[in-house]
Structures are given as C-alpha cells and as structure tokens.
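pasting Serine hydrolase domain-containing protein for the record, 401 residues
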Amino acid sequence: MRYIKFIIAILLGALAIGYASYVALRPPANFEDRIAFIQTLADKGVARGSWPGIMWAVVRDGEIAVTGAAGFADIATSRPMTSTTTMPIGSITKVITGLSAAQAIHDGNLDLDRPLDQTLSIAIDWPDDHPCTLRHLVTHTCGILDTDEGYDDAGYHYGSTTHPDTLSEFLTRYLAASGDLYDAEANFSDNAPGTHYAYSNVGAGLTGQTISDATGEPFATYSMRMVANPLGLSGFWGHTLPVPENGATLYTRDDAGDFVALPPYGLATWPDGQFNASVHDLARLLSAIINRGALDGRQAIDPKVVDLLTTPLIEGIDGMSAADDKIGIFWSYETLDFGLFSFKGEGHNGGDPGVITLMYRIPDTKDGFVVMLNGEPDGQIGLLHAVRLLHAISTIPPSNP
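structre below
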C-alpha cells in the first residue's frame, strides 16, 4: 500500500541503526550552512549508492528559498537529476485531487455530505447498505480497502504508463458485485463509514471519478484547468503521456543491491498517485497552499478553496497513527516517526516502485520542504543517509520563530 510503506521501512531501519548514530543527525544551526549540509548529504547518498537521484526544496516564509538536486535522472546515459526533472509524485497526487475536490465543492458541484450514489455514474454495491459520502472518501473513512490481489496485483500495469482499464472500468471491477475483483469482505471494512481511518488508494481513485461525474468534465482535464495550470506547474497526468525526455527513470534493486531500471507503469486508480511533477513544481504547490492560494503576486486559487483543503474534517479517530493526527481533504496533519527522530507535518508523502516523495509544511510556520527520490534507500547506511537528510531538512529553524 502506497504512502505508509516508506515510513515503516525507514522506521525499522533507523531503529536497527541504534542510538549511537544519533549524534550524526545534528545538523548546523545556521540556515546557509544547513543548506550546504543538505546538499552534501544528497551528494554522499549518490556516491554511496543510497539513491540514484534526489531532488529537494525548502520553502521559507511562504516563498521558495532554495531547490537542489544530486545524482542521476537516468544512470545509463548519465543524465543528471535537476530541480526541473519530472517524475511520478506518488500519493502527493492526492493533494492535487484534494484541491480539485475543494474547487468543485466551492463551485457548488459537490457536497461533502451528499451520498456518492447521488453523483456517481457507476454503480457500487456497498455492503450492509452503508453508502459513503465525499467526506468519508477524502478522509479515508469510507471503508474501502486496498487488497493485495485486487489492488496491488491488478491496479498496476507494467510496460506502459497507461493502464488497460479506464478509471471507471477498474472501479466497477472492484466495487460492483458484477466485477471480477469484487469481494465484499476483502474490499470493504466492517466499520461504518466515518468511524475508522483506513488509508485507501481505491477510495482516492473513486474521488476522481466523483469529481468528473459531478462536473461533467474528465477529471484529468478538470484538475489541470482548475489546479495545475493556475499554479503554473509543468506537471501532467502520467497516464496521458509516455515518460518525457526530462523525466526520471525509476529504479528498483537486484539481488546484489544494484539499481535496475523499472519499465514504465500505469495505475488504474491514477487520481491517487500518478501525477508527474518536478521538485520545483511541488515547491510552488506547497508555497501556494501556505499562502492560501497566492503565488507570484497573484491569487492563483481562491483562498476559500485552500481553506476547504486544509481545514481538518476528522481528528484522532481509530486507525490514525496518533491521537492528535487530523486530515482535511486528503491534507494530513500527521506525526512521522523515524525511530531516531520524529516530527509533525502538514501535507503528504508518497511511495511507489522507484518513487519516494515527501511534501510538508512545518506546523505554525510558513516554512516547509519537499524531497523526491527515484529509487529507495537500501541497508542501514542508505537508511541512515535518508534519516539524516530528512532530519536536516525538516528541522530548519523557522523563518519567523
């Protein structure tokens, strides 16, 4: 399941490293020295094989303060990773989908508490007659579950960035009793909607379908028009195009631990994880959210839309990691525990084969950061590099303490 896989892996690896390595986490306090330290860690991670390439950015006082990169977008051709290299952003995609939902709500096309069956063009066979609302979908409390056989095995398609199923076709296969992937017990929780948090990529895909049906516009087109284009993002929906010339190759590892290029792949539930963007794009997205839609001296998105995205809808219910964790429209207020350190962040992270991404605002500040890798760290040294870098970038002293 995307989103939590990376967090668990880092936690377990960091715990194995032990407290003796904690002193290595102490970065310089001065901002300029901290930035240089982060770049050094990024470069060392490449040199020691912790990751093939990395992009990172720091937002300070609501503005993009610095972007950086190290390593390779493609190892075979020695093409360097840069701050404008694009790659799939994993589950940070849900922030794009969340802003699209917020815009549709603001425009009166959607209602958080209207039963989905009153909007959807596809039929869903909810068990126990517990139909969900949009509020349940965007807070992961609908009760739709991602299964290994139905979601992981059938939802990923290797060899092309486009999945053979359209979004509505896959959702029908998974959520309608007539579908070959339907399993009332496995695909749905026993909990009533709104009572239990269970992270669901299928539910996020269903959100994209709901927005499309409510607005009468293909979701990819609507989200580009309402979110990506107003923010001036160079990003695009990965299922609509092959990997571009400036796109990063994604990597897994062989048995010896060496990087091996992954073939292109597509997601059936693409509104949950297949937006492609650069670290500069995500820094712009984070800056706009921090500034309630203002960007480049203009109001790119209505502040009320951003408020809809970020206002918590649930807090600390069963299934969430911490009692004070909250979530708005796919916008999380969460505690990230890496064993040797933890921090509270507002935003999202993502993980897919060959993809690790984090985008967080530091609570009660106008600061934040983005980190993107096109391959996963491996072993204790690789995990320590990742933990050190995340600690350094997430603890930069606030611009206005």
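The mean pLDDT is 92.
The radius of gyration is 20 Å.
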